[in-house]
């Protein structure tokens, strides 16, 4: 049996020199409400988008 998608993602994101487990933390939160899928930036994501007008 192969690696799960999450294991593959973790492996890829931690394979660079000096990478840590922190680098593989999820940066988005996916939820579904009434048949609508919502994707949000995780509150604890190290990098967050800013207002493009700034």
Overview of the structural elements:
- The protein is an alpha+beta fold and 54 residues long.
- A two-stranded antiparallel ribbon has the order 1-2.
- The longest helix is centred in the first third of the chain and has 9 residues.
- The model has no long low-confidence stretch (mean pLDDT 89).
**Low-confidence parts:** none
Enumerate the strands of the largest sheet in spatial order, edge to edge or round the barrel: 1-2
What is the share of helical residues?
Answer: 10-25%
Counting H and I runs of at least 4 residues, what is the number of helices?
Answer: 1
The major beta sheet can be summarized as: 2 strands, antiparallel
> Which descriptor suits the 3D outline?
flat
Order of helices and strands: HEE
**Radius of gyration, CA atoms, in whole angstroms:** 15 Å
Span of the ends, CA to CA: 48 Å
Strand content: 15-25%
Mean residue pLDDT:
89
Descriptive labels:
flat; alpha+beta; 1 helix; 54 residues; two-stranded antiparallel sheet
Summarize it.
The protein has 54 residues and is an alpha+beta fold. The chain is 17% helix and 22% strand.
Topology overview:
Layout: H1 5-13, E1 28-33, E2 36-41
Antiparallel strand pairs: 1-2
């Amino acid at each position: 049996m192969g690696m799960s998608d999450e294991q593959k993602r973790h492996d890829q994101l931690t394979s660079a020199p000096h990478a840590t487990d922190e680098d593989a933390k999820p940066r988005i939160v996916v939820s579904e409400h009434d048949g609508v899928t919502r994707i949000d930036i995780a509150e604890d994501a190290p990098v967050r988008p800013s207002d493009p007008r700034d």
